[in-house]
Amino acid sequence: YFNVKDCFTGEINKAILNGISTKFTFIVKLYEVRNAWFDREIADIKLTHNIKYNTLRNEFSLFLPEQNNKKVKTKDFDEAKKLMAEVVALKVAKLDKLKRGLHYQLRMKAELDKIELPFYLNYVFFFLFLWDFETDWYSVIFRY
Known about the structure:
By secondary structure, the chain is mainly beta. It has helices at about 10-15, 75-85; strands at about 1-5, 20-30, 40-55, 60-65, 70-75, 85, 105-110, 140-144. The protein has one domain (about 1-144).
């Protein structure tokens, strides 16, 4: 389980509530830490959460791939933002790929994907380039 805090700015909220489809991409990497050599990559996962607001139904539709490609619908914007910003039950690697007694590094990062609009809307929503963001890498070292 991990989540991204403070990722919804006023501009992002406004764009979502105007029906613009928005994507958060999460990058997760697992390495075996080796002192005398380069670390060995065990897993490299990229998953994307999608949110789309249906203004006619007053309903948010979300796609959460780490939960068996789960599709969620909710009318609560706060709940939708919480679901968008967190990753739950992600299977990074099978335990048989890890060796007991060794150290491993788990690295995570989140990106807000750029919005692709039809050419004529780029002038109307010119402010959207201001809300592309990417977090720093967050890493945890553990021993199995």
